[in-house]
Design brief:
2 domains; elongated; disordered N terminus; two-stranded antiparallel sheet; mainly alpha; 2 strands
Length: 113
């Protein structure tokens, strides 16, 4: 199963039993998990969630795709990444330091494992 950048699984969306509003094989309403994630993004960015997001799968997905990378990382995440970068003798690009998702990917790519 491929994971979407926004943190929700496209296959998981079709298996949700609540709001299982599917027309022509395409879901018309967002899953509860998608709505929760969209709300958390809006809260983190101190913005109102567009009304269309509640009733449209596509509008919710578009909102997540458009805004998820703008959510800033936590202080703990920045501290961990900075320590890791220092240990590796690498710099973290500014754009990566400004995004929770991008910083998480950077950490995953640079951790031993």
């Amino acid at each position: 199963m491929r994971e979407n950048r926004g943190g929700y699984s496209r296959r998981g969306a079709s298996r949700n039993s609540e709001n299982n509003d599917i027309h022509g094989g395409k879901r018309s309403t967002p899953t509860d998990k998608m709505l929760s994630y969209a709300r958390s993004i809006a809260d983190a960015l101190d913005m109102d969630l567009p009304e269309s997001v509640d009733g449209s799968f596509d509008a919710c997905r578009d909102f997540i795709d458009q805004h998820a990378e703008s959510v800033p990382p936590t202080d703990k995440q920045v501290k961990f990444a900075t320590t890791l970068a220092d240990d590796l003798g690498e710099d973290i690009p500014r754009r990566v330091l400004d995004s929770k998702i991008l910083l998480s990917r950077w950490i995953d790519d640079h951790q031993e494992g």
